[in-house]
Write the structure tokens for this entry.
Amino acid sequence: PTLHPDFFAILEAARARPIRHIMINTNGLRIAREPDFVARLAQHKRGFEVYLQFDSLQRDALVNLRGADLRKIRQLALENLERHGISTTLVATIKRGVNDHAIGDIVHHALSWKCVRGVTLQPVQDAGRNENFNKDNDRIMLSEIRRRVVETGVFGENDMIPLPCNPESISIG
């Protein structure tokens, strides 16, 4: 959405309505490359959040999941978001054998940024850049993700709370 030529007009139109929280889902390319864009975003930061794609801190996992080594882009994006205090959630698509072993690294990395308010971990789905995807080998279950989060030492087992609306699919910690 950040590439849309009318991005700020759309953001302002949303602000003119009774919408309490606005979130943009982004890969962070523009946020990393255009500090002036981020400064303008900061003017809207009340009730605003960046949902930043953040699958790994490792090159091979990023190439597998996104087709490119995006470590520098993610670092620059976080630096720009941090500089302006823009609320950010890191969003990782987790694929067995690719980045499931790095869940702890992602959680601990998130804790090193004041702007990061949360981490979303979602199992990979058979869509997009998933050539030769095998659901039996590549997909990870939410119960395994929860276990990996507990293994970080940041959260205990009792901290992982299933949401009543969908206890098998969503939990928060």
Remarks:
- The chain has a mean pLDDT of 91.
- Helices lie at 7-15, 29-33, 35-42, 59-66, 71-84, 103-110, 135-138, 142-151.
- The first helix runs from residue 7 to 15.
